Amino acid sequence: MRARDFLSREEEQRLIDAIVAAEKRTSGEIRIHIERKCPEDPKEGALKTFHKLQMEKTAQRNAVLIYVACESRRFAVLGDKGIDAVVPAGFWKDVCAGLSGHFSRGTYADGLAEAIGRIGEKLKTFFPYRSDDVNELPDEISFHENDGED
What we know:
single chain, alpha/beta, Diaminopimelate Epimerase, Chain A, domain 1, 5 helices, about 45% helix, globular
């Protein structure tokens, strides 16, 4: 399956809208990245993508990446140092468990939307929106049509 075919255009827009809504309540940043294959541990794939997308460059180090390798059926959620230091133990595992449940039922967009909501609430708690907030990262979903080699 091509990464671009993982979501319909309507689902993609729904998720972008969810990111925009979440980020209106926080100074944090949320991104979704979808690629075709991940031959390694998905956390490693997420970490490489996190740096490739320059997500570590947010002022408060409070960006979160939801990484999906659709053909490999793997995913990971990765928070930068600022958010990772303040969320409760097990938070990322809980988000992943919710995604896993949805993904096993084939309700990918619902799972991603739910994850965005949960992440947004935590970001709001620890990094509330400020009047001088700047959207530091694009809200669009990024895609990579890799063959798992890069």
